[in-house]
Design a protein that fits this description.
single chain, about 550 residues, mainly beta
C-alpha cells in the first residue's frame, strides 16, 4: 500500500496495513533535504510505500517500518528526541508522544535525506473510535479539531461512564468544544460527568459567533444514547456577538439527536448594564438548530438565556417524544419547555413539560414559546410571562391538535398584548381536540383554551379551569378570552356560560354550550373520536384524549 502526497503535500484518505490491522492515514507529508518533495518525472505524485501507519497512538511504544521505494535501500537516522527511537529502518514511537503531536522521522539514502512527519493519534482501526476515559474523549476532540488531522466524520462510541473533572473544572479550566463534527457519536447509554465551561464570548469566539457546549457545531451528525452532567455557561463579551449555548451542542444543522438526557445547567448570559442586540440561544440539548431532529430527548437541567431558551433547544428543530422537567427562563425573550421558538410548519408530537417556564419579557409556553404545529403534547408546569402572551402549550402562534394543559398559566404584563390561554396565549391558527384543566390569569385577556384567537377556529375542546383578567376589561371566557378577527367556536363546552369574552369580535358559535360537571363527564362521544371516557379516573372522570390510554 502506498501514501500519495499530492501537489499540496496532503496525504490522500486511505488505509494501510499495520501489523495486520487496517488503519487510517489522515495526514502526512514528506520533505527531501528539508524541501517539500518534488514531482518525479511525469508522475504528479511523490509515492512512499509504507508498512506502518502515519496516524498512530494506541500502538505507541511499538515499532513499525518505513521504506523508501523501489531501488533505494535506506538506513534510518534521526536526531534523538524523547518521542522516537530508530534501529535500521525500524521506528519506535514512545508512550509519551502526545496525541496530536507531529514527529519528524529523518531517513537517508544515497546522500539524500527525507523526512516523514508522523501525526500521533489514536488507533481508529475499528469503524468507531472507542472512548474509555476522559483522555480518549480529548483525543476525539484532537482528531476533529487538529488542523492536520481534521477528521470531522470520525465515528465514536462511549465504552464506559467517564469523568471530565480532570480536564475541565473551575481549577482545571474550561472544556474546549469539539467543532465541527459530522460523525456518529453513540453514548451507548453511558454518562459523561462534570462537563464544565464558563467562558466569555470575546475570548471564545469564531467569526463573531460564540459556541459553548460539549460539541460546538455539528452538521449531518448523529448524537445519541448518552447522559450529560455538569455546568455550561456562556457570557457576552464587550462586543455584540451571537451566542449559542447547549449541553450537548451549541449549534447544529441537519443533525439527529436521539435518546439524550441533559442534567447540565445551561446559561447564556449578558451583563445587565449592557445593551446587546445580538440573540442568545440556550437549550438543554442544543442552543440553535433550525434543521435538527430530536427524538426521545429529556432535559432535567436549569436553562437560562437572554433571548431564546428551551428545555431541549433554544431555537428551531423537529421534536418527537421529548420531555422537560427543568426550570426554563428567558431574561428578555422567549421561553418554552421544549423549545424557545420554533416554526417551519413541522409537526411536533408526543412531547411533555412538567418544569416551570418563565419569560421575563417575551412569550412563554409549556411546549414552545412561539411557532410550530403541535399534536399529542401536554403541560403540567407553571407557565408565566411578565410582558407577552403565555400558553399551556404555545405562547403565540401554532396549530394545535390533541393537546391538554393542567398547569397554571399567567400573563402579567400590563399591555394590550398580554394574553393568557390554557392551550395557546395568542392563537394564529386552529386549535382542536384539546382541553384545559388549569387556572388561567391574564392582564388584558384570558381564555380557558386561547387567550386571544386572531383567526380560524376552536373546535372539539373543553375547559374546566378558572380564568380571570387583572385589568378593568372583561376579555375573559372559558374557551376564548378575546378575538382579534372573525373566528368560530365549534363543538366546545365549559362549566360556565361565558364561552368567550364580552368584548370579543365576531365570534360564531356552533354546537357550543355550558353544562354541569356531571353532564360534561359524559361528553367524550360529543367531543369526537379523539376523546374517550375517563374509565380510570385520570382526570376525575372528565373526558380524556384517546392517546392518554396508550
Amino acid at each position: 500500500m502506498a501514501i500519495y502526497i499530492n501537489n499540496t503535500k496532503k496525504v490522500t484518505n486511505m488505509l494501510v496495513n499495520v501489523n495486520g490491522q487496517k488503519k487510517k492515514i489522515v495526514s502526512a507529508w514528506v520533505t527531501r533535504d528539508g524541501v517539500p518533495a518534488k514531482v518525479f518525472g511525469s508522475d504528479h505524485n511523490y509515492m512512499i510505500p509504507v508498512t506502518a501507519n502515519s496516524y498512530i497512538a494506541k500502538s505507541r511504544g511499538k515499532s513499525f517500518k518505513l521504506t523508501i521505494p523501489d531501488k533505494e535501500e535506506i538506513s534510518c537516522t534521526a536526531t534523538a528526541n524523547d518521542h522516537i527511537s530508530l534501529s535500521g529502518n525500524m521506528v519506535t514511537v514512545s508512550q509519551n508522544a502526545a496525541v496530536g503531536s507531529v514527529i519528524p522521522v529523518r531517513v537517508s539514502s544515497d546522500s539524500v535525506s527525507y523526512t516523514v512527519n508522523i501525526i500521533v493519534a489514536p488507533d481508529i482501526s475499528k469503524n468507531s473510535y472507542e472512548i474509555y476515559d476522559s483522555n480518549d474523549l480529548v483525543t476525539l476532540r484532537t482528531i476533529v479539531n487538529h488542523s492536520a488531522m481534521n477528521d470531522v466524520s470520525q465515528n465514536a462510541r462511549l465504552m464506559n461512564d467517564i469523568d471530565l473533572s480532570d480536564v475541565c473544572s473551575p481549577t482545571a479550566g474550561n472544556w474546549i468544544i469539539i467543532s465541527e463534527y459530522h460523525g456518529i457519536f453513540d453514548g451507548q447509554r453511558h454518562t459523561i460527568n462534570h462537563l464544565y465551561m464558563d467562558v466569555t464570548g470575546a475570548n471564545y469566539a469564531e467569526n463573531y459567533e460564540t459556541y459553548v457546549g460539549l460539541f460546538g457545531k455539528t452538521n449531518g451528525a448523529t448524537i445519541k444514547n448518552a447522559t450529560l452532567n455538569g455546568s455550561v455557561t456562556g457570557r457576552s463579551g464587550s462586543t455584540s456577538k451571537n451566542m449559542y449555548v447547549g449541553g450537548f451542542c451549541a449549534y447544529s444543522t441537519n443533525t439527529k439527536f436521539e435518546n439524550l438526557i441533559n442534567n447540565t445547567s445551561v446559561y447564556a448570559l449578558y451583563p445587565s448594564s449592557a445593551s446587546i442586540a445580538a440573540p442568545f440561544y440556550a437549550g438543554g440539548i442544543c442552543g440553535y438548530s433550525p434543521s435538527a431532529e430530536y427524538t426521545g430527548c429529556t432535559n432535567n437541567g436549569i436553562i437560562q438565556g437572554k433571548r431564546y431558551s428551551g428545555g431541549i433547544c433554544g431555537y428551531g428543530g423537529h421534536f418527537m417524544n421529548c420531555h422537560n422537567t427543568g426550570k426554563i427562563q428567558s431574561l428578555i425573550g422567549d421561553a418554552g419547555g421544549i423549545g424557545g421558538r420554533n416554526g417551519g410548519g413541522i409537526w411536533t408530537t408526543g412531547c411533555a413539560n412538567t418544569g416551570t417556564i418563565i419569560a421575563n419579557s417575551g412569550y412563554a409556553g409549556g411546549i414552545f414559546a412561539s411557532g410550530s404545529y403541535v399534536s399529542q403534547c401536554h403541560n403540567w408546569g407553571s407557565i408565566s410571562s411578565s410582558r407577552q402572551s403565555a400558553g399551556g402549550i404555545i405562547g403565540s402562534g401554532g396549530r394545535i391538535d390533541e393537546c391538554y394543559n393542567n398547569g397554571e398559566i399567567t400573563a402579567s404584563g400590563q399591555s394590550s398584548a398580554s394574553y393568557a390561554g390554557g392551550i395557546v396565549g395568542s392563537a394564529l391558527n386552529e386549535v382542536k381536540n384539546s382541553y384545559n384543566t388549569g387556572n388561567v390569569t391574564g392582564y388584558h385577556a384570558a381564555g380557558g383554551i386561547t387567550g386571544c384567537q386572531q383567526t380560524a377556529y376552536v373546535s372539539n375542546c373543553y375547559s374546566i379551569g378558572n380564568y380571570k383578567v387583572n385589568d378593568s376589561g372583561n376579555a375573559y371566557g372559558s374557551i376564548i378570552g378575546y378575538s382579534m378577527n372573525s373566528c368560530q367556536l365549534i363543538n366546545c363546552y365549559a362549566l360556565t356560560s361565558r364561552l368567550h369574552g364580552g368584548n370579543a369580535y365576531a365570534v360564531t358559535k356552533t354546537n357550543c354550550e355550558s353544562v354541569s360537571e356531571s353532564i360534561l363527564k359524559t361528553y367524550a362521544h360529543k367531543l369526537g373520536d379523539k376523546f374517550t371516557d375517563d374509565a380510570h379516573g385520570i382526570k376525575g372522570g372528565f373526558p380524556i384524549l384517546a392517546f392518554q390510554t396508550t
